[in-house]
Amino acid sequence: MRITNEGSNYADNFAGTRWVGSACRNLSTYFGYEPAGEVNERGIAARIYNAAASGADELFVYDNPPAGERGAIYARYHSLLVKREPKIPVAVFLSKTAQELGLLTDLYPHAVVFRDYTDFDYLDESLIEQGFLDRYQVLVWTDGAVTEEKTLQQIEKWALAGGSLYCYIQPQTVEGRLWKLPAKDFAVSPSSLASFFEQIALSHAGLIPDGRADKVYWTRFKNDSVLILNFSDQVYEINNHKIEPGGIGEFQPDGKN
After folding, report:
1. Phi and psi (nearest 5°) for 108?
2. What are the helix (H) ranges across 115-232?
3. What is the rounded distance in angstroms from the CA atom of residue 208 to the CA atom of residue 66?
4. For the whole model, what pTM was predicted?
5. Domains in the chain, please, with CATH?
6. Of 19, 61, 94, 167, which sits with the fewest C-beta atoms within 10 Å of its C-beta?
7. Is the dihedral of CA 118, 122, 125, 127 positive or negative?
8. What is the pLDDT of residues 75-130, one digit of tens each?
């Protein structure tokens, strides 16, 4: 599967492509990303990072062949374009039921904000029904409060077995029954979306290596290597290494880069 909706902003690209990436990776299905139109030079690095961090099989580009500064960016990060296995312990619930009812209005804007704190996958009702929630340790529910009773039952079973559930909204069934998870404090009522995400990051510092809203994006892989995109306007320093604005840094488990 190839999804055709990328632009030049990484967070927007992530929000619009990760549902496909999450589903295809969990289902062991080939997937790739294609731009919807023109991509600027900063967007080239953003797209390379998105493909690598998502574990994509393909990155389709319209530069044929790339030349000048654009070609130099492709050459600089060409080695990153290998099939990878991201290590993602956090998922965000995407209710297709709410989407069909016209009640999923803020999920993607929320995703743009949350991605600055941590990498995550989307899980919908179908993926949860197939058991993929068991691959994650944290589930975050920010929008689209309505879903099916059986999905709530599966989420409840997972949470009572040790999963951490955070709800920014009050979940309910299609019939309108408000849902509360018994014997477990699962919801927080923060003053803002940012404080909600900050609380999650602080509560799971060991799982979320970034945890800061600074336009610097982290992805950890199953071999414990880390890929970082600096989409801020400042040089980012880590392990005595500098990542220029718009640049990507790769760090191996032994500390080498």
Report:
1. -70, -45
2. 125-129, 149-160, 193-203
3. 36
4. 0.94
5. 2-80 (no CATH), 90-203 (3.40.50), 216-251 (no CATH)
6. 61
7. negative
8. 999 999 999 999 999 999 999 999 999 999 999 999 999 999 999 999 999 999 99
